[in-house]
Specification:
The protein is an alpha+beta fold. It has 5 helices and 11 strands, in the order ααααβββββαββββββ. The termini are far apart.
């Protein structure tokens, strides 16, 4: 027996103890030794349990599960925005204003330049042209385009740069709330006996051709879906006739009352 065996207490150093009993007693001693609580409770940081609900907890949705708005959803949001705006007072039949400016351009395009007088026909104003043909611009359903002086003032208050004819309207009117008009409304211009009668056909959708008049090209400022009170209107011509700057323009009513 070596001195090392005596120090370690091996089976050869213990008289009458077998190797098996020595191993068994060693295991029993290790099992009876209490583990330090600090060691027993150590959990790797990445595996540490977390409470299901904490005051600052927040559900994180994977990018693959994040819903995206479809084109239909975006259109509905625009429609909801328009519906949420204040109701625009509707002008009464018999109310009206004045033709502040008559605007034409040949062969077409914007801006349109003011003239003193012309004739309104079913194909548009004499002296006016359209670079883009119907149905985009012009044609019987878009023979005349109207916009208001009051609308121009509101749009310019938002930092834009409009003036009569800048965004392509043929008739710039004052004193008549175009924002309160509806498709099918009829307007008479000038004398009751001979003046032209037009009927609103649809709002004029803004296009890139007029973008230069808007700060940061924000043409949606005159979109009927976004700002119906400041949209331009297209009109068909029910009765042809002359128009002079300063003529009265009067709301007659909807299409179902014509002739009454």
């Amino acid at each position: 027996m070596t001195s090392r065996d005596m120090r370690l207490g091996s089976p050869t150093a213990t008289s009458g103890r077998s190797r098996r009993s020595w191993v068994a007693s060693s295991r029993s001693a290790r099992a009876s030794t209490p583990r330090s609580p600090a060691i027993r409770n150590i959990v790797p940081p990445r595996c540490a349990p977390t409470s299901a609900k904490t005051s600052n907890s927040r559900k994180i949705t994977p990018m693959s599960e994040t819903p995206t708005a479809s084109e239909g959803d975006q259109e509905r949001r625009v429609d909801d925005l328009a519906a949420a705006r204040r109701e625009i007072p509707r002008p009464l039949a018999g109310s009206g204003g004045l033709i502040s400016s008559i605007n034409v351009s040949h062969p077409g395009g914007v801006p349109k330049r003011p003239i003193d007088r012309t004739v309104i026909t079913t194909r548009g104003l004499i002296g006016d042209g359209q670079r883009t043909k119907a149905p985009v611009h012009g044609g019987p359903e878009k023979a005349v385009c109207l916009f208001g002086v009051e609308q121009i003032a509101r749009v310019n208050a938002d930092g834009h740069h409009l003036y009569p004819g800048a965004i392509g309207e043929n008739l710039t009117v004052s004193g008549l709330d175009l924002g309160g008009l509806r498709e099918g409304d009829r307007l008479r211009i000038g004398p009751a006996e001979s003046g032209p009668i037009i009927q609103l056909s649809e709002p004029a959708a803004p296009c890139k051709n007029i973008a230069g008049s808007f700060e940061d090209w924000r043409i949606a400022r005159v979109s009927h879906k976004v700002r119906p009170e400041d949209s331009r209107w297209y009109a068909r011509v029910l009765r042809e006739g002359p128009v002079v700057t300063g003529d009265r323009i009067e709301l007659l009513g909807a299409a179902d009352t014509i002739g009454q």
